[in-house]
Amino acid sequence: MAKTPTPDEAAIPYEQARDELIAVVQKLETGGTSLEEALALWERGEQLAGICQQWLDGARERLAKASGQNADQEADSEEM
User: Fold this and answer.
1) What is the b/e burial string over 61-70, where b = at least 16 CB atoms within 10 angstroms of the residue's CB?
2) How many domains does one find in the chain?
3) How far apart are CA 21 and CA 5, in angstroms?
């Protein structure tokens, strides 16, 4: 489960968080790191995934407001 980003982490632009997350995943997939380094990379990846999700959730809410729906109506329609 991804931890909730801190306000400082949430200030990272989506594109920067996404790019860093891609780099972290590539390092983990390549291997060759110590267990401690791999764990630190995994934790950072979880943080970055949370930041990206927060940005995407915010974008979804803005789109819902712009189209005249609220976020609850949109979530209900996605579940169907």
Assistant:
1) eeebeeeeee
2) 1
3) 14
Rounded to an integer, what distance in angstroms lies between the CA atom of residue 53 and that of residue 51?
5
Q: Enumerate residues 6+ apart whose C-beta is below 8 A from 51.
A: 5, 9, 10, 12, 14, 17
CA 17 to chain centre: 7
Q: Which domain holds residue 21?
A: 12-79
Distance of CA 76 to the CA centre of its chain: 22
Q: What is the pTM for the complete model shown?
A: 0.71
28 located within any domain: yes
Give tens-digit pLDDT for 6-44: 555 558 999 999 999 999 999 999 999 999 999 999 999
